[in-house]
């Protein structure tokens, strides 16, 4: 399948400290790529950098991020703003805090659609269609964030990305703030949308079980660098890097108390 | 929502009652004999006793307060000892002038403070921020009388740009009589299309309004800066950026929004502060308003007038807070269910 996102020699640094240093990372259209690694490995920063947002945190970026044939590093701010939302979107870690508390989620969605050029009527229609795709009632658009559950808000966030027509979803631990059953629902939804809509997902998580169940491929990061990447089943059953093995062992130790880590 | 409003209004009535009682007690314990003031310097003791009985001053305090409150509710706020006119008439004649001054100050406070706060938050810890913050510290700490005198000296006396004192040019009024609608001269002149008078009132309002505005500008700037900076750290702001909104929109339409409530709340506080502040400003600019009235009344221990001014200021303050509370409940969905 066609390459949607390709990252080459990407470094992200704060001051003189490089916290991300990625040699090569590709994501095809309609693919779900898991980005794993321990806390502080630089997963979130990688996601933010793809969205062109790490500069807002004061980071300096070098290298190359090409999205659908277009170089993003050093791109004009205006162009990045056009691409954000309409081509790539963020699915947040904590949906509860990801919506403006004094606006209905519909207001946020309509404003975003209008920003990217839809007429009022067209925006309404698209919002309704997108809500149907994530299996939420349109009436939920009139709710304020505090009137929706975490799972519902996460669905709204996904609907927002779909309504805008995003091809790439950067999902930064999108399920870590949700309880287990809701986690499974959101993962299933993302998998279904990959199949039906052909969206690609950069799925950031330190939970290898979740990644194994959902992702086509997994890349493992440590201290800002890629340790290894490969198709999900292989990487989980026959990891080549010691570090991946350590992560797996840790995950198994954690998971053994409850259920078996599936997909492995 | 309705029961919330009812509760707030009930509470406000209680506060107003407390203010009247307190003012009465304070006014009674300060030295000075209102009856003597009323009867004039040449009245003898018998005459004074007659006046005292006539004014109800010989009754016990609770009964006096009761009588006064009953009158207040009926619109009878007593007769001024100094002007010999109904206090309420005096107050209502002067209140619009003072309101015009205070509201102009508050409006300037919002029009300058909100954008300044946004600019400071947008470029936090960089030169625009430092500039704005320095201005805010100055505006909030400069003594009002000093600022007023400085403005008078510079803009009025030295540059001759604006009038030194007064609230309009009598010659302009004579040629263009003002129809009273709201009582606020600027608003009335604009509403009736009386442009010469509007211009004259505006010219006279600029300097005192700027002086009154110094504090609101400073407070609102700092509040907006701090609030927006706080909000900028929240996830939903990052989400807004991730949706492609330009930074200006992120700040002005998304990050500012949750901060309107604290700003409004502070506006009510500032309103009360400015009301009292304006008394001083009115004196310096010879601007006719409640300030001059209060000062003159205090001079001769004009009890009904003093109690009247105090009650009116308290009522205005209560009304402002009530208005803000209701606005807040309407603005912030999270407050609706209290
Ligand atoms: N604004 C910032 N200023 C300085 N350093 C930062 C900043 N944001 C992140 N870092 C550093 O970058 C590194 C990577 O952080 P990042 O948030 O990408 O980790 P992560 O892999 O997402 O971890 P987690 O699993 O805990 O979310 C960390 O060492 C962190 O200290
Ligand atoms: Mg992270």
TrEMBL record, chain A:
Residue ranges occupied by any ABC transporter domain in the UniProt entry: 5-248
Gene3D superfamilies from the UniProt entry: P-loop containing nucleotide triphosphate hydrolases
Main location: membrane
Keyword list, A-Z: ATP-binding, Cell membrane, Membrane, Nucleotide-binding, Transport
Membrane topology according to the record: Peripheral membrane protein
Localization (cell): Cell membrane
GO molecular-function terms, A-Z: ATP binding; ATP hydrolysis activity
GO cellular component terms given for this protein: plasma membrane
InterPro entries: AAA+_ATPase (IPR003593), ABC_Ni/Peptide_Import (IPR050388), ABC_transporter-like_ATP-bd (IPR003439), ABC_transporter-like_CS (IPR017871), P-loop_NTPase (IPR027417)
SUPFAM superfamilies: P-loop containing nucleoside triphosphate hydrolases
Top-level lineage group: Bacteria
Family: Belongs to the ABC transporter superfamily.
Protein name from the UniProt record: ABC transporter domain-containing protein
From TrEMBL, chain B:
Residues passing through the membrane, by range: 101-124, 136-155, 205-224, 263-285, 305-331
Subcellular location: Cell membrane
Keywords on record: Cell membrane, Membrane, Transmembrane, Transmembrane helix, Transport
CDD domains named among the record's database cross-references: TM_PBP2
PROSITE patterns cross-referenced by the UniProt entry: ABC_TM1
Keyword Transport set for record: yes
Record's bilayer topology term: Multi-pass membrane protein
Top-level taxon of origin: Bacteria
Recorded family membership: Belongs to the binding-protein-dependent transport system permease family.
Protein name as catalogued: Peptide ABC transporter permease
Lineage of the species this protein comes from: Bacteria, Bacillati, Actinomycetota, Actinomycetes, Streptosporangiales
